[in-house]
Amino acid sequence: MATKAYFKRSEIGKDKPGFSTTRSIVEAAFYGNNVVKVNTLKEAYALAKDSYGTIVTDMPVYRGEEFGLEKDAKVLLFNDGSVTGRCAAARRITGSKGVDTADLDKKLMDAVYHMRYSTLYHAEVYIGLDPDFMVKAHLLIPEGEENILYSWMLNFQYMSEQYVKMYKESKLMEDECDIYIVSNPQWEHEEHPLGLTYFNTQSNCAALLGMKYFGEHKKGTLTIAWAIANRQGYASCHGGQKRYNLSGGKSYVASVFGLSGSGKSTITHAKHGNKYDVTVLHDDAFIINLETGSSVALEPTYFDKTADYPTNCEDNRYLLTAQNCSATLDEEGKVVLVTEDIRNGNGRAIKSKLWSPNRVDKIDEAVNAIFWIMKDPTLPPILKIKGAELASVMGATLATKRSSAERLAPGVDPDALVVEPYANPFRTYPLASDYHNFKSLVANKQVDCYILNTGDFMGKKVQPADTLGILEKIVENKAEFKQWGNFSNIEIMEWDGFVPDLQDQNYIAALKARMQDRVHFIQSRETDKGGYDRLPSDALAAIEAVVKEIH
Question: Quick one: DSSP state of residue 525?
Answer without folding.
Answer: T
